Amino acid sequence: MDHRGIVYERHGRGEPLVLLHGLGHRRQAWEPVVDELARRHEVFALDLPGFGESPGPGPEGPYGIPALVDTVAAWCAAAGLPRPHLAGNSLGGAVALELGARGVAASVTALSPIGFSRGTELLGSRLMVGGMHVATRVPAKAWRRVIDSRPVRTLTTLAVHGGTRDPYGELARLDPSVVTRGSPYTRLAPEVVRYNFTGGPVVTCPTTVAWGENDRVLPVRAVRRVLRAIPHAREVRLLGCGHVPMDNDPRTVAHTILSTCTRHLPRTAAPAAASAA
Fold first, then answer.
1. Smallest Cα–Cα separation from 116: which of 236, 224, 234?
2. Which segment of the chain is annotated as a signal peptide (predicted)?
3. Number of other CB atoms surrounding residue 276 within 10 Å
């Protein structure tokens, strides 16, 4: 994928902080927290390839987690950000952790990252992927009626926000253009369900894993695997939050990211310094 096609917004001044959204979302997911973050950082909110305004790869091009990580790493290097702070939600959280494992992150804040859920914890995600493939075979007009039905909008709201009302007092709605045959979402979703994070031992930067207690997409108990994989990671439980916590409690999410950016590791967790010759 060509990193030059990534569309982004830039706010504030200070040490660079790159924000990475989740599957099917876009850079606007970070709007509730951008102003607070931009008071202390130069903030870059990206549209990941294939979402928002950033073009996806061609039908034959690679499009999985490794390709996304490579593309974001290339974008950061081209933007003159060799080691920015990173914060990501869900898919974006995994991309941030993978970049942390490469040693190119000053800190990582992962909000409900993919790659740590197992077995029945992934049931909802697998059903979502199965339903998505069925939806691509349904006429567009009928599919839009399904999306706009109250039961589907209620389930969507419950999955994303952890309750039956979103923070704006309405039922959430899926974007019908996302769930079409060959769309970036339908190509990437199976990869997201299969993905397992394995780079924990080499993540040496300050790391926070924050999880919404009401997350219905990736249950909060998966946080235990993050802490086993990255023992120095700090755990934050986001009370009253669902899978996209920026909507539920932007103040706490912003504080969690900012405090990670200024966090220092214990000496035992820091990478060993090279000995003098």
1. 224
2. none
3. 4
Q: How far is CA 244 from CA 22, 29, 75, 180, 210, in A?
A: 8, 8, 24, 23, 11
Provide DSSP, 92-108: HHHHHHHHHHTT--SEE
Which tokens hold the place of 115? 């790659």
pLDDT, average across residues 117-123: 72
pLDDT surpasses 90 at 174: no
Q: Mention every residue, 6+ apart, whose C-beta is less than 8 A from residue 44.
A: 8, 9, 10, 16, 17, 18, 19, 79, 81, 84
Output the pLDDT for position 135: 55
Q: How many CB atoms lie within 10 A of CB 201?
A: 10
Query: pTM higher than 0.70, yes or no?
Result: yes
The answer to whether the CB of 44 falls within 8 A of the CB of 16 is yes
Q: Distance between CA 211 and CA 99 in Å, rounded? A: 20
pLDDT at 275 over 60: no
